[in-house]
């Protein structure tokens, strides 16, 4: 390659080198990105590198190919650092705001205890309407099974399933209104 002199447009020379070595450059970037940049596509990095090549205003570059690969390497390093900082920032934010890694608020001990007590009340209420009605309610509301299939499973008519569901709903509504009064 020729050395860029004062009369040669460096950006154009870099752009030409980019186009000439594009497949090798893409392979180089892919190999250096690794798993730390799993969410970033190589083509996005190539696009950023192309834009940087077009903006580069360096007086002299003796080896445009080498310069391109160094630019690509530095770009991948910057992206990896940025991704690491983002992960650390997200982890710190979650810790400070009492959230786990999926940004779900972690329940306090008091909330966990209250939820356990409420679940026990709901279980007791359902058992008070009868084992069959409680089982039908669980199959319908928790397991998502349709009423016809539940009727077949329990060996009862569809209207019996509907009546048992109504009993369970009424009992749970009464429990809810009782809790609201307290």
UniProtKB/TrEMBL annotation:
<comment type="similarity">
    <text>Belongs to the sigma-70 factor family. ECF subfamily.</text>
</comment>
<keyword id="KW-0731">Sigma factor</keyword>
<feature type="domain" description="RNA polymerase sigma-70 region 2">
    <location>
        <begin position="18"/>
        <end position="85"/>
    </location>
</feature>
<dbReference type="InterPro" id="IPR036388">
    <property type="entry name" value="WH-like_DNA-bd_sf"/>
</dbReference>
<keyword id="KW-0805">Transcription regulation</keyword>
<dbReference type="Pfam" id="PF04542">
    <property type="entry name" value="Sigma70_r2"/>
</dbReference>
<dbReference type="InterPro" id="IPR013324">
    <property type="entry name" value="RNA_pol_sigma_r3/r4-like"/>
</dbReference>
<dbReference type="InterPro" id="IPR014284">
    <property type="entry name" value="RNA_pol_sigma-70_dom"/>
</dbReference>
<keyword id="KW-0804">Transcription</keyword>
<protein>
    <submittedName>
        <fullName>RNA polymerase sigma factor</fullName>
    </submittedName>
</protein>
<dbReference type="InterPro" id="IPR007627">
    <property type="entry name" value="RNA_pol_sigma70_r2"/>
</dbReference>
<dbReference type="InterPro" id="IPR013325">
    <property type="entry name" value="RNA_pol_sigma_r2"/>
</dbReference>
<dbReference type="InterPro" id="IPR039425">
    <property type="entry name" value="RNA_pol_sigma-70-like"/>
</dbReference>
